[in-house]
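Can anyone check this?
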Amino acid sequence: MGNSEKKLPNSSESIDEELAKDIARLYNWAQVEGEGVAYRDFSRQRKPRHIRTAQDQDIVGNQGESAAVFEPITENPPSVEIPQAAPTPEEPLIIVETSASQVSTGPIQPEPVNSVTSTTAGPELRDLRVTPLAEGISPALAVYSLAGGVGKTTFCASLGRILCSLGEQVLLVDASVSGLLPFYFGATDLRSGLRTFLAPEPHYPPLQVLGADEVTKGWLDGDVKAAMLHAQRIIFDLGPTSMGVLPEIFGMCGLILIPLLPDLNSILTVSRIEASLKAMKSRGIQIPPAFYLFNRFDENDPMHQQARGLVQRQCGEHLLPMTIHGGAEIAQAIASRMTVADHAPESDVTRDFMEVASWVRKVAPVHVVGRAPGRWSER
């Protein structure tokens, strides 16, 4: 009996043990010593050129921290072109808000994305298609994280702005109750409800932001679903206040994007996220495909590469090959009430968001109203 009760090595236990060893090495390499050390970023003690700023309202709103760490902009950006040049920072590009009565809700044909190419996505990602959504509900994605301060709101605003510039009718749903999304598009006041913003470029469709004082199932079934009927692309910015209605929100989406930072806090949340999604599936809740993406990433930093390797081992192909660079342009754009795509259209960060937007359009294409066939005629 004694010999038969001995447990054989379990593959999952072996993986967990190896993961613990790798995390210990990262602690050592990051020169974090002693107990009770406030540890946030692998590169914090290694790169004195970091810029700390309190301008990132996304981080302040979600985590309550007083400062954020931004990586310096790196060289060799992906070969992605920006479809529409924006004014230089000396002439701020502010998207103006307008009333809903001034906006047409008719279908808008998206512009082709031939100028946007994904140079790093593998074939398995390019060929992926999300589960079709219910008729009348537009393709939606949820930006989700258990770690605070990963830049979810900045990510939602920047991705929504890029997709809008590609001709999609975009609805940003603030399910975090932070109320910060409108400020990326020139808003000057904090209020809930549906708000519509127009870009300076006349050929861009309007972009809408929907917020609430409280995220409830009634709000989702009423205001959110009603607004979704007039949009082609919906992006949910999720926060702690939306955890009670996650099953309902995930059921409305066809894709989940999970931003990560190359730090220990983000890495340790991956297993918790995977476990929570698995638990929801076991209860019969429909969960769309979830993909992880590194934000404020420096490919030249070995610590960042090591962090990416750890997540790659856990998530496999569900870790996207593209990353989002860090840079001072992000804080400068937020301070100017703009997205980074408007503030610094030629920056590495903007090019990264272009690549992510291209990937989203490939894996979750929007529904385009078909055009009736017609023959040319001589005048």
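Reply from J.R.: I decoded it. The first strand starts at residue 51 and ends at 53.
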